[in-house]
Amino acid sequence: MNKSLNITNDGAGEASILVPASGVGIDINAGAGDIVSLRGLVIDGQGVGDMGIYIEQASAVHIQNCVIRNFEHGSAHGLFASSSHNMKLFVSDTLIFNNGSGVASGGITIAPLGTATADAVLDRVRLENNVIGLRVTGGSSTGNGAHAVVRDSVVSGNASHGIFATSSLGQAPALIVVERTSSVNNAGTGINAVGPHAVVLLHDNTVARNGVGISATATGQLISYGNNKVNNNIGADGVPTGSYSPI
């Protein structure tokens, strides 16, 4: 789609998009000031699709009450937001599961390009049985980077990391604020920050039964507000790199 658009299913039954081999369910390449809204859709890659939703350009994208599943071919993402223009993404009450094939693929990736900034808010989102649940990276840009807020969500059963912030030397920052969210039963690290300018803030979360609980490496940072429950992980529970006092 190449303009502002609203697609809504408020009726009975499923409004499904069945994606063919190597296909993309919804490719958003709108104008720099355009707004796209998607609600009540089921986007199914049938095990052979590349991406459920691919955001190339838009001022803002709103996704509500959707299901994105079974994208397991090629770049293999449920939702891939990678734009060279500033953008905002809002996802709520949405289930994203069974997506990914390679090590950097999975449920949601937010990866701005060039000097662009990407800001995302995820409310009541379930990321289940993907490769990576949520990946936010500044490694493809040199601007203000990628920022995400994850609230009241569940990240579970993913084959790699549950929530993953990453950047690299000389590249843009990646910031994730995680509030009242459970990252559990992931084979990799429940919440992971890797690289300079990769920062995760933790407030009132549960991290349990992951391969590793929380981890920060290569000068990444995990900042805790002191009210998280990180225990009963299969490997090390991990410790934050710093803390904030509640105000």
- Indicate the radius of gyration in whole angstroms: 17 Å
Main sheet: strands, sense, barrel: 17 strands, parallel
What do we call the CATH homologous superfamily? Answer: Single-stranded right-handed beta-helix, Pectin lyase-like
Give the name of the CATH architecture. Answer: 3 Solenoid
Number of domains: 1
Give the proportion of residues in helices. under 10%
Shape: globular
Q: How many beta-strand elements?
A: 25
Structural class: mainly beta
Features:
globular, mainly beta, 17-stranded parallel beta sheet, 247 residues, 52% strand, Pectate Lyase C-like
Outline of the structure:
The chain is an all-beta fold and 247 residues long. It contains no helices and 25 strands.
Structure explained in plain terms:
By secondary structure, the chain is mostly beta strands. The protein has a single domain (5-243), classed as Pectate Lyase C-like. The chain contains no helices and 25 strands. It has a 17-stranded parallel β-sheet that branches. The chain is globular and about 45 Å long. The mean pLDDT is 96.
